[in-house]
From TrEMBL:
Species of provenance: Myxococcus llanfairpwllgwyngyllgogerychwyrndrobwllllantysiliogogogochensis
Protein name: Peptide ABC transporter substrate-binding protein
Highest taxon listed in the record's lineage: Bacteria
Amino acid sequence: MSTEPLLQAKDVEVHFPVRGGWLGRSRGAVKAVDGVTFDVFRGETLG
């Protein structure tokens, strides 16, 4: 059996813009995920 992961994710970042103010301009961002790292190996489930 291989010890190599089927999926590798390193330093994942997901940011969503915060809209509002004058003409719906961006007013910053919400950090949903910031710097997450994970591996998924054969037989594992993610979710």
